[in-house]
Automatic annotation (TrEMBL):
GO terms for molecular function: heme binding; iron ion binding; monooxygenase activity; oxidoreductase activity, acting on paired donors, with incorporation or reduction of molecular oxygen. Pfam families: p450. It comes from Danaus plexippus plexippus. CDD domains: CYP4. Heme binds at residue 484. Signal peptide: none annotated. Keywords: Heme, Iron, Membrane, Metal-binding, Monooxygenase, Oxidoreductase, Transmembrane, Transmembrane helix. The chain crosses the membrane at residues 20-36. The keyword Oxidoreductase applies. This is Cytochrome P450 4G4. Belongs to the cytochrome P450 family. Its cofactor is heme.
Length: 543
């Protein structure tokens, strides 16, 4: 056979082999798809019984998640209100079934459970950043770390942060004095929330990096092609993410290193509670800081039983001390927990306080009542706030809670179901494998729970109005065993910073709530920025 003929034979046999491959591939794929659909039949059958918008084959409702994050938020809200009378709404993002829950009874079923504690698949995008920190870990690891960390947010530890909160608040007021005209107060709140004097320089860079990381994570949540790591790692976003993570982890490492050096040099932990408790179980629940735990469930931030004769330490001090033994927590785990707390404690409080100031700027009458209360507490004095003062800020607290109702910084909470559940509200079943999404934003705007839900009305939180409301109708900090571990810290800090600002300035907003463009890239924000103006109060308190 000539060389040319041999080449022709080789080419045609390659062609035949390629053809055979495709001929076999198509039925193989069809077979696999049929098997896959059959194995998920139970899921499809149950999902069919739950109301939801129609979707396309294979991609489901993924096209609804195109556009900017403010558009996505608007679309989702519009969609969810189309199903106004439904307590649960399903959507498909490709093969993933998501069921949104809006009824407090269904929310309770998930959040009060010790079984449904697994975070949804979507939280895995946080993994390169937060590792196995409290927010995303599960099972025994989460249980043991939660048990270790919760006591570091005990009220007695938090009280010792008050000086730091006051110092931060005064620094913010001093910076705000330079503002004239309209500006974005979120910029100030971001840096005020996460830093102390040792981390102030890196604080802004860190805050920016966190914000950009959230943008990337949000993109991965909403754009299905960015979900698989294999594809994502080839994109420009992956490179940007690596840069941002080096900034974020750089600051965490710095904070831990400094603490370790203090530890080695024998410096006493910064916060040390010398007061010891009795052996009996005792709870230190304080009204106004203590929501997030339903009746009948033990609040792990309050209970003193595990303390016994031990001293109470602040978060990082305790982790480092526990690491000394080497058994309880490793160095990597400490870093993951610090990253988690720094993220969770930072953006959420910054958004909450910025919404609060925006709302005060709109509702001058309500702001005047807050200031009247502050005048009663502080009189003409420019003294810093004490813990007792924060307990007396009852009206400010109601305004804060109403802010968190209307604009919950964490607008959804998602869990992965490992078993079928039956919704108490409707008797409908949600199949195992579903991502259940607690739609906090919509739940908080439910007409059947809050009459006139779009109106900013702090009286919604008058004790007599709250008393008859379902406990799970207000869950800005989640609730139950996986509730926010920093909720009391957040309330205390917010009360101190917001009261200090209002003692010094009148806040004015030219926009109304209905003009807010909301976007939810992980944390709920105003897309146009939190624009306000300030006027020094006549009796200007020295900051
Ligand atoms: C206004 C401020 C805050 C809001 C609205 C908020 C809200 C929440 C919500 C809704 C969750 C549950 C998330 C989920 O299950 O997916 C959560 C969890 C968590 N939060 Fe907060 N948070 C705030 C402030 C803080 C602060 C100041 C810290 C720490 C200093 C903190 C630390 C955490 C941690 C560690 C978790 C995970 C708890 C666990 O799974 O065991 N948060 N937060």
């Amino acid at each position: 056979m000539s060389y040319a003929a041999a080449e022709t034979v080789a080419a045609s046999s390659t062609w035949a082999a390629t053809n055979l491959f495709y001929v076999l591939l198509v039925p193989a794929l069809l077979l696999w798809y049929t098997y896959w659909r059959m194995s998920r039949r139970h899921m499809y059958e149950l999902a069919e019984k739950i109301a939801g918008p129609p979707g396309y084959p294979l991609i489901g409702n993924a096209l609804e998640f195109t556009g900017g994050s403010d558009e996505i938020f608007k679309n989702i809200m519009k969609r969810s209100f189309e199903f106004k009378n439904e307590t649960a709404v399903r959507i498909w993002i490709g093969p993933r079934l998501l069921v949104f829950l809006y009824d407090p009874r269904d929310v309770e079923l998930i959040l009060s459970s010790h079984v449904h504690i697994d975070k949804a698949e979507e939280y895995r995008f946080f993994k390169p950043w937060l590792g196995d920190g409290l927010l995303i870990s599960t099972g025994q690891k989460w249980r043991s770390h939660r048990k270790l960390i919760a006591p570091t947010f005990h009220l007695n530890v938090l009280k010792s942060f008050i000086d730091l909160f006051n110092a931060n608040s005064r620094a913010v007021v001093n910076k705000l004095k330079k503002e004239s005209g309209e500006f974005d107060c979120h910029d100030y709140m971001k840096t005020a929330m996460g830093v102390n004097k040792n981390t102030q320089d890196s604080g802004f860079e860190y805050a920016m990096a966190v914000m950009k990381m959230c943008d990337i994570l949000h993109l991965r949540h909403t754009k299905i092609w960015l979900r698989p790591d294999l594809l994502f790692n080839f994109t420009q976003y992956a490179k940007v993410q690596n840069k941002l993570l080096s900034i974020i982890h750089g600051l965490t490492t710095k904070v831990i290193k400094r603490k370790k050096e203090e530890f080695k040099s024998g410096k006493k932990p910064s916060i040390l509670e010398t007061e010891v408790t009795t052996k009996d179980t005792k709870t230190t629940s304080v009204e106004g800081l203590s929501f997030g735990q339903s009746a009948g469930l033990k609040d792990d931030l309050d209970v003193d039983e595990d303390v016994g004769q031990k001293k109470r330490l602040a978060f990082l001090d305790l982790l480092l001390e526990s690491a000394q033994g080497g058994i309880v927590i490793s160095d990597t785990e400490i870093k993951e927990q610090v990253d988690t707390i720094m993220f969770e404690g930072h953006d959420t409080t910054a958004a909450g306080s910025s919404f609060f100031l925006s709302l005060m700027g709109i509702h001058q009458d309500i702001q005047a009542k807050v200031v009247e209360e502050l005048d009663q507490i502080f009189g003409d004095s420019d003294r810093p706030a004490t813990f007792q003062d924060t307990l007396e800020m009852k009206y400010l607290e109601r305004c804060l809670m109403e802010t968190l109702r209307m604009f919950p910084p964490v607008p959804i909470i998602a869990r992965h179901l490992n078993q079928d559940i039956t919704l108490p509200s409707s008797g409908k079943k949600v199949p195992a494998g579903t991502t259940v999404v607690i739609g906090t934003y919509k739940l908080h705007r439910s007409e059947s729970i809050y009459p006139n839900p779009d109106k900013f009305d702090p009286d919604n939180f008058l004790p007599e109005r709250s008393a008859n409301r379902h406990y799970y109708a207000f869950v800005p900090f989640s609730a139950g065993p996986r509730s926010c571990v920093g909720r009391k810290y957040a309330m205390l800090k917010l009360k101190i910073i917001l009261s200090t600002i209002l003692r010094n300035f009148r806040v004015i907003s030219d926009l109304k709530e209905e003009d807010f463009k909301l976007q939810a890239d992980i944390i709920l924000k105003r897309a146009e920025g939190f624009k306000v103006r300030l006027e020094p109060r006549k009796r200007l308190v020295k900051a």
